[in-house]
Amino acid sequence: MCVLFNYGLNRSEWYNELRFKYLESFSVFLGKKIRDRRRACGFETQSALADAIGVDRTRVSRWEKGQNIPSKQLRETLKRILNVDDSFFKPTAPGPLTPDKSLLILEIVALLPGIDVNNLEVILDLLRAANSRSTSRTKAR
């Protein structure tokens, strides 16, 4: 058995675990962006934004907590009301998690002795930070 899978997970299970962690992190990140933009646009409460877009306050609350992501139709309405474009609703870095990227991440994880699956989010955050620094240096040249 490959050292990558010494935690009893096969390749597909690792990919799904990483994908879930990434999507979970993104929904929380998007929720914070929605909350910050709502406030910047003068909607002091979740109810005020909910009334403006025609949904229940609990839906806005779920978005801001990262429990849900707005549907495509509601994203269009939010873009108009919050004065944002499509990029607002898209992940920034490291981009979509592809099987190739997930395997690279798994190789890195396998090299760290004693790493726990619960620490994957911390590792991904470190990789994102390194990626953004690398991208910044490339643009500066």
Uncertain residue ranges = 1-6
- Tell me the series of helices and strands, N- to C-terminal: HHHHHH
CATH superfamily: lambda repressor-like DNA-binding domains
N-to-C span = 43 Å
CATH topology: the name is 434 Repressor (Amino-terminal Domain)
How many domains?
1
Q: Give the % helix.
A: 55-70%
Q: What proportion of the residues form beta strands (DSSP E)?
A: under 5%
- Strands, total number: 0
How many H/I helices?
6
**Would you state the CATH class?**
Mainly Alpha
Quick take:
This protein is mainly alpha-helical and 141 residues long.
Q: Please, could you describe this protein's structure?
A:
With 141 residues, the protein is mainly alpha-helical. It has one domain (3-140): 434 Repressor (Amino-terminal Domain). It has helices spanning 11-40, 46-53, 57-65, 72-82, 99-111, 120-140. The radius of gyration is 18 Å and the shape is elongated. Residues 1-6 have low confidence and may be disordered.
What's the helix and strand layout?
Layout: H1 11-40, H2 46-53, H3 57-65, H4 72-82, H5 99-111, H6 120-140
Helix pairs in contact: 1-3, 1-5, 2-3
Supply the key terms.
single chain; 141 residues; mainly alpha; 434 Repressor (Amino-terminal Domain); 6 helices; disordered N terminus
